[in-house]
Amino acid sequence: MLPKTQKNFVADVAAKHGQRLRRFLAARLRNTADTADLAQEVFLRLLRVKRFEQIRSPEAYLLTVASHVIHQHSLSSLSTPATLDGFDELLDEHLVTDSDPVAQVHLERRLEALDHALARLPVRTRAVFVLQRRDGYTLDEISAQLGISRSAVRKHLAKALAQCSRQILEPRQERE
Amino acid sequence: MNSQIHEAAALWLVEFRTDTPDGAARRRFAAWLRTSPEHIKAYLNLLALWEDAQGCDPQRRLDIDTLIGLARADHTVTELRTDEGPDGRADTLAPAKRYRPHTAVAALLSLVINCGVMWIATDSRNVGYTTRIAEQRSVVLSDGSRIDLDALSDLRVNFTGHERTVELRSGQALFRVTKDAKRPFVVRVDDARFRAVGTKFDVDRTTLGTVLTVLEGHVAVLAASGTGAKLDPGQQATIIHGTITAPQTVDTAAVTGWTRRLLTFNSTPLAVVAEEFNRFSFRRVVVASPALLDFRVTGTFRAFDPESLTDFVLFLRRQPGIAVLENDNQITVLNRSTH
User: Fold this and answer.
1) How remote is the C-alpha of B261 from its chain's centroid?
2) For B225-246, what is each residue's pLDDT tens digit?
3) Burial class of residue B21, CB neighbours in 10 A (0-12, 13-18, 19+)
4) Which of A107, B214, B311, B327 is the most buried (most CB within 10 A)?
């Protein structure tokens, strides 16, 4: 067990790195119609990891593997000389292209679809989700403002996420 | 089946984004991931949505107070049903049930994580600029971007931590946008949005549609119909009822002539010409015959010179089939055959 300060430091670094990773992944997934191939490849790699259940942060591991798969895929399709330690630069590059107008149109379409989906949520679920995502409210702040428990806030968040994604990703299977 | 996976993935994702799951929970998550590629796919898709959602409702149709008010007043859903999580397989699929909020460790650690993950509170600034007839003005925004506003125009500025939004409610404006990759610059009109990074472009709201002209850089258009386009320098497109016309190459100097107080028309419909004159003249030009709205006008007029309007009226009078009635307040353009 790490001393507490050191643990906080590790958590900070992981959080910062994680944020970059998540933005990178989001940008790539946004422009990919079907993530089945990616998921399949990530799945196979996770299966190969010995004692995967013992890994300290399986979520961070998942996101890192997914980024590597995307990275390798884009390298092979672009036939760019492979600089394996240039991964960070590649990340930055992709973050910059995040502001490319065409990528922005993709993002705006997704946001429009998301806004439509949000409008169909129960009022309180929608409020919790928008306050957390758009306005950066913490669980505690939302819990205090709306007078509901932290676990209820979490459930609202998860419900909003699941329902919106169902509507956006598979609008036809909405009523199965 | 599929929706069950989505719900489980959503619970896990919220767990990891808002809290620090303990060792046992992390092991359950790892096992869940290795159950099926479908789980990984669902998790990654939800992650992308979660990240994108930071930009939801950017124009703040619902502001914070409204949201809180609505949620407090909402008694139709007092408690979420616990079967939102897939109860049948609680071992691997229902993290929220295992983490009670009163777990002291979880509460403590959430503070650490929240600091890293949370979006910064917004610093929205709402400013409005309007110009009257024959009044033009230039404004410099807090980010250094410059807007030249034509006469009889109405513009609202709404800057937040992650987007610079400008709403052109009426009239015409020339935008010189300062680069800020983290805060895209978006111009909104009723039925379309224009997004630019380090760009100079002109937006003109006319009765026949909104005309976008790009002078430098690139502008992405997203219209209400869902169609999109990317315009290069020198290109112009019109958005009519949420649909974008094919971009054309135009004389950009003519388009921005108004900033030099020149009204330049090149086969421009009379409906638009009348509107342009009306931005500078207290005597309104009214096109009374619908057939004349599409009558094409070519020529250059000095916007602030009253003689220009006189010249324009003379020009109209010389056209066969057109009659002009004048009084102190109005210049009425009519089809001669109906008169």
Assistant:
1) 28
2) 777 888 889 999 999 988 899 8
3) buried
4) B214
Q: Give A173's DSSP letter.
A: G
Comparing CB atoms, the residue among B58, B193, B220 nearest residue A102 is B220
Contacts of residue A50, Cβ cutoff 8 Å, sequence gap at least 6: none
Q: ipTM beyond 0.85?
A: no
Q: Which residues in chain A are closer than 8 Å to B214, comparing Cβ atoms?
A: none
User: Could B26 and A56 be called an inter-chain contact, meaning their C-beta atoms sit closer than 8 Å?
Assistant: yes
Q: What is the pLDDT of residues B94-113, one digit of tens each?
A: 333 333 434 444 444 433 33
Q: Which structure tokens are listed for B168?
A: 């052109």
Instruction: State how far the alpha carbon of B35 is from the alpha carbons of A68, A165, B41, B80, in Å.
Output: 21, 21, 12, 28
Q: What is the DSSP string of B135-175?
A: --EEEE-TTS-EEEE-TT-EEEEEE-SS-EEEEEEESEEEE
Which secondary-structure segment (H or E) carries B281?
A: none
- Residue from the list A47, A55, A155 with its beta carbon closest to the beta carbon of B84: A155
CA distance A85 to chain B (A): 24
Longest dimension (CA), chain B: 88
Cβ–Cβ under 8 Å, residues B275 and B252: no
Angle between helices A139-146 and B64-73 (to 10 degrees): 60
Place of tokens 């007029």: B301
Q: Please check whether residue B156 is in contact with residue B167, taking contact to mean a CB–CB distance below 8 angstroms.
A: yes
Instruction: Report how many Cβ contacts below 8 Å link chain A to chain B.
Output: 263
- Work out the average pLDDT over A17-39: 77
CA distance B105 to B242: 52
CB contact under 8 A, A131 and B100: no
Q: Do B113 and A124 touch (CB under 8 A)?
A: no
Secondary element (H or E) of residue B191: none
Say which amino acid occupies A84: L
Position A135 scores a pLDDT of: 85
